[in-house]
């Protein structure tokens, strides 16, 4: 067995040596060879600023960490790598002790007690964090599972029976399983790491009660070595004693901590105090409730604008009726890479998604009224397509991380600057370029001016629209709107008939035919004429869609940074 360990360590050293020059930044952080190997395989040649700032404190100094950075900055690995690093160090130490004592039984079972519990505000974010950690832990033999609502409870209980070391979940489902006595989630004597990801959003979504209940179940983390020894049975190992010192990570896209709280952490003073669910109105209170230890590391990399550095912001002034035309123009002429279209209302989302599908654009949707399985399927399909288009409401705007989202379109303006930040932050992530385009109607001008003023961006650039495309776009749009109107009317009529029929059958009633023979004949002729009209409109539209929108050439270099600059006119 000793030979196997030595061979594995040698392989790891050789793997790291191969990329020594380009992985120098990771080597500086003194990460385990297996983690450096994982970063190399994932194409992460150097850590992001938030990772550089958090990994030394979390992985080597064992400090609690409060971290904040812009969206897409790599916060997941900023807490994930320290957790994996410390688990690996502990495992290596335990393995060496066992080898020396020759007391290890071959074929020992995988898994073990819960070591890290990570809370996220949404199911989609939990899945995303879980996927990132699985990729980082691919060569480690450390198991990570998601525990979220909307999925089968039985399936998730089966996952927990395998005793994964790391669980990522939403407060609601986690507390549901904890309160029902799930063994893996309530036996927390070995819990070493507790993470609150997107903590500001956790507060907004009203998870106070569940978060507080979960925190109250955690073992005390600030007891001294002497107290820990007294509370521990004689058969426990030194490694188990170290586990008693839980490490807490609180991460967010924004950070608002009082000067007094920062001073206490800096001076090593206790921050704990009795809190209630009503007190959990800030990241500061949530950190206190979670048992943030003295001398915790505060890493605040947010800046004045909070928006990604390489984000190009612009707008298009148009009437409400022309928003559809400009949206189709952007997608058709500048539709490179993934695009997210944001709406504030579900009715607007349904309108444009239906219209775009009629125009031959394969659109995905994500909103709160969808079933969870459908939402997660849409997220997966969006990730898979290089030029996917997703139409979403603001519940989707925070936390989710996608590669190569080139464009964010604000079909409807958000209600606050905070939501605008998180919408726009879906693009220009990981130091890539991207653009955010707002469609501004006359009714939006005052709100948009206020939004620009809050970011000191009154001279925002106007997105260039080549009006030569508009006649062809309006022809297509006119046909698509007619098709949508007829199809929608027909669908509503059929839905009403189905509803009446279902209710009558459930009550054991027989519906009487209220129409006369003449009315039925007239109705049949009308439906036939409508069907023919719909077929003709669809044929005309299909014929237009078979040809390029405009044969003339048009510069597609806007997304690389060539734009027209116009001063935004304030009211």
Automatic annotation (TrEMBL):
What InterPro entries does the annotation carry?
DEAD/DEAH_box_helicase_dom (IPR011545), DEAD_box_RNA_helicase (IPR050079), Helicase_ATP-bd (IPR014001), Helicase_C-like (IPR001650), P-loop_NTPase (IPR027417), RNA-helicase_DEAD-box_CS (IPR000629), RNA_helicase_DEAD_Q_motif (IPR014014)
Domain Helicase C-terminal span(s) in chain numbering: 310-471
Tagged with keyword Nucleotide-binding: yes
What Pfam families does the record point to? DEAD, Helicase_C
Q: Name one GO cellular component term.
A: cytosol
Q: Domain Helicase ATP-binding: where?
A: 56-273
Domain of life of the source? Eukaryota
Map motif Q motif onto the chain.
24-52
Q: Which SMART domains match?
A: DEXDc, HELICc
Record keywords, A-Z: ATP-binding, Helicase, Hydrolase, Nucleotide-binding
DEAD-box RNA helicase Q domain mapped to chain residues: 24-52
**Molecular function per GO:** ATP binding; hydrolase activity; nucleic acid binding; RNA helicase activity
Which SUPFAM superfamilies does this one have?
Answer: P-loop containing nucleoside triphosphate hydrolases
Identify its protein family.
Belongs to the DEAD box helicase family.
Q: Protein name, please?
A: RNA helicase
């Amino acid at each position: 067995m000793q030979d196997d360990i030595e061979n594995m360590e040698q392989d790891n050293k050789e793997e790291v040596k191969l990329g020594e020059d380009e992985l120098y930044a990771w080597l500086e952080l003194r990460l385990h060879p297996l983690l450096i190997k994982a970063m190399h395989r994932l194409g992460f040649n150097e850590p992001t600023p938030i990772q550089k700032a958090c990994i030394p404190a979390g992985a080597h100094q064992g400090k609690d960490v409060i971290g904040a950075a812009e969206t897409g900055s790599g916060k997941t690995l900023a807490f994930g790598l320290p957790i994996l690093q410390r688990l690996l160090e502990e495992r290596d130490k335990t393995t060496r002790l066992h080898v020396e004592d020759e007391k290890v039984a071959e074929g020992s079972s995988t898994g073990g007690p819960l070591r890290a519990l990570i809370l996220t505000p949404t199911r989609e974010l939990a899945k995303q964090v879980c996927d990132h950690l699985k990729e980082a832990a691919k060569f480690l033999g450390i198991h990570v599972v998601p525990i979220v609502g909307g999925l089968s409870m039985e399936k998730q209980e089966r996952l927990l029976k395998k005793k994964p070391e790391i669980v990522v979940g939403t407060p609601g489902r986690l507390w549901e399983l904890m309160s029902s006595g799930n063994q893996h989630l309530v036996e927390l004597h070995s819990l070493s790491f507790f993470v609150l990801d997107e903590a500001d959003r956790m507060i907004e979504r009203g998870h106070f009660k569940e978060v507080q209940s979960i925190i109250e179940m955690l073992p005390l983390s600030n007891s001294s070595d002497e107290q820990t020894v007294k509370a521990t049975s004689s058969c426990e190992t030194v490694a188990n004693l170290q586990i008693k010192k839980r490490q807490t990570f609180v991460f967010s896209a924004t950070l608002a901590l009082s000067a007094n709280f920062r001073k206490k952490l800096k001076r090593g003073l206790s921050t704990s105090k009795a809190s209630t669910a009503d007190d959990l109105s800030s990241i500061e209170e949530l950190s206190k409730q979670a048992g943030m230890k003295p001398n915790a590391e505060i890493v605040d990399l947010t800046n004045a604008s909070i928006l990604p550095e390489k984000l190009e912001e612009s707008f298009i002034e148009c009437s409400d009726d022309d928003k559809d035309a400009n949206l189709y123009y952007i997608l058709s002429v500048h539709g490179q890479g993934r695009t997210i279209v944001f709406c504030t209302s579900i009715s607007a989302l349904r309108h444009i998604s239906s219209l775009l599908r009629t125009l031959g654009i394969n659109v995905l949707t994500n909103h709160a009224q969808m079933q969870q399985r459908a939402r997660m399927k849409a997220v997966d399909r969006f990730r898979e397509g290089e030029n996917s288009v997703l139409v979403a409401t603001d519940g989707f705007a925070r936390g989710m991380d996608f590669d190569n989202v080139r464009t964010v379109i604000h079909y409807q303006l958000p209600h606050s600057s905070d939501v605008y930040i998180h919408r726009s932050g879906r693009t220009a992530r990981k130091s890539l370029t991207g653009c955010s385009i707002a469609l501004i109607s006359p009714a939006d001008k005052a709100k948009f001016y206020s939004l620009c003023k809050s970011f000191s961006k009154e001279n925002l650039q106007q997105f260039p629209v080549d009006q030569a495309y508009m006649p062809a776009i309006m022809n297509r749009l006119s046909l698509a709107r007619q098709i949508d109107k007829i199809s929608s009317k027909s669908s509503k009529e059929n839905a009403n008939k189905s509803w009446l029929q279902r209710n009558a059958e459930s009550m054991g009633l027989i519906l009487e035919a209220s129409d006369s023979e003449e009315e039925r004949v007239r109705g049949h002729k009308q439906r036939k004429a409508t069907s023919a009209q719909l077929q003709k409109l669809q044929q005309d539209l299909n014929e237009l869609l078979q040809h390029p929108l405009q044969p003339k050439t048009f510069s597609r270099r806007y997304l690389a940074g060539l734009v027209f600059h116009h001063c935004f006119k304030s009211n």
